[in-house]
Amino acid sequence: MARSPLHAPGPGSGRAARTARLLWPLALTLALATFLTGAALIARYGPVAPALGTGVAGVAALALLERLRRDHRAALDEARRQAGLVAARDEEAVRRDAGWRAYTEEQAGYVRDELVHLLKERLPAATSGTGGIPPAGPAAAALAGTMPEVPGLLDRLLAEVAQEAADQAESQRLSLVELASRVQTSAHRIQATVTGLAERFPGDTDLLEATMQVDHAATQQARHAQSLKVLCGEWPGQQWQKPLALVDVVRAASGRIVAYRRVTVTGEPDLGVHASVVEPLIHLVAELLANATEYSPPRTSVLVTVRAVQRGAVIEVDDGGLGLDEYRLGHAREIVSGRRLLGVGEVGEIPQTGFAVVGRFADRHGFQVDLGPSPYGGVRAVVLIPLELLETLEPAGSRSAQPPAAAPPVHPAPAPAAEPPAPRERPRRAPGSRLPQRRSRRGEGPGPAGEAPAGAAAPAPGTPEEAGDWMDAFFAGGRGEPDPPPAGPTNPHPHDSADPPEGQP
């Protein structure tokens, strides 16, 4: 079997072998010379002298042979010693190789574990833009002693990725806010245009009905645009100058949804809310009403109750839908309460923005929103407005004579001819507006002589938003009884609505 380089004899054993190869021919030469010398001496001097010479030569040959034997033994010993050293070096090399392999595998395991932690935990948190990046894993501490540059390199890489993701997210957010603002402005311009058209032709009933429908559609457009801005971290720019009754908050919110005629509100009329949170509360309630009408049978009403409680006031919205299972209800409660804030990128491919917007408003303004089973079989949404945001308003009768300053004058609807005149009803808020809204009494009987006609126009406010609000307030009183609604929605998504037109999935 061939020897490996590690098992080859050392340099000492090679020199001993070469010495042995030289001494054997020399010993044979000396022995032959001794024999020839002895023969020559015998031939010349007789047997005595040759015997003596032969003895001397033999002794010399024996001495030489002993020297040769010792050198050969020494050479063998040296060879064995060198072989032992080589074997020891081989064993040391094998031991070191095994140790190095174990070390490299251990370090590779640390690197692998840290990379897995980076990719599964830290990198998604960095790219999500929510902050709170998890710290390095336990493997980073082990790497710090042997490869200190690796943890630092990963941290720098993660910081760069997080910054790049944050920059891109901010750029997208600003773009969406700008687009939503343009859509909202466009909706207000549409409302202003149809308001002017209605003022020019106040006696054209068909035109008035068409402008009313266009104005209401523009109201939906403006609400959806504002919802998108809220999900992007922006907040409504509209500011109310005076507090508003909570029942009027609900009425204004109902004007911002498609099925506003299905909303029935009852409750204490003297509970008001600070002007600073009127607009956020209207938008919040509008999203809950949109969801309730979307997920309840189309011929049923959505019941809204306003009442005072010890910690403030509550607005309860009950729908008659199928309700939610325990898992989806718990998930929805996390969102509407504001405990889990969703961004515009987390509302799904088919955006379900309602609950996400509610949660944003609840978190920002201190409203407490919760969901639970409704006694009507669907879902009950409860909005708690804390005491510090409430105001006690004037009695309803005195407020009906003096509507809010932002509202233009609106003529009261005629009373039924067969009944005695009833006290004038406190004006409803216009859909999505600061304005009072007339109740439709068409079909109840002709009004007394001299009453203003139902289509009489009131002065329109100046701004596009106020114009749109006024349009909805004015024409709501002239609507007939609602048409039979189409079949209910078939949206398979959780109990959250982006408020599409009724009858569409």
From TrEMBL:
Pfam families, per database record: HATPase_c
Keywords for this protein: Kinase, Membrane, Phosphoprotein, Transferase, Transmembrane, Transmembrane helix
Gene Ontology molecular function terms on file: protein histidine kinase activity
Entries under InterPro entries matching the protein: HATPase_C_sf, HATPase_dom, TCS_sensor_his_kinase
SMART domains per UniProt: HATPase_c
Enzyme Commission number(s) of this protein: 2.7.13.3
Residue ranges of domain Histidine kinase/HSP90-like ATPase in the record: 276-389
Biased composition (Pro residues): 405-421, 483-492
Transmembrane annotation, as ranges: 22-42
Biased composition, class Basic residues, residue ranges: 426-441
SUPFAM superfamilies (alphabetical): ATPase domain of HSP90 chaperone/DNA topoisomerase II/histidine kinase
Signal peptide start and end residues: none
Reaction(s) the record says it catalyses: ATP + protein L-histidine = ADP + protein N-phospho-L-histidine
Protein's name in the database: histidine kinase
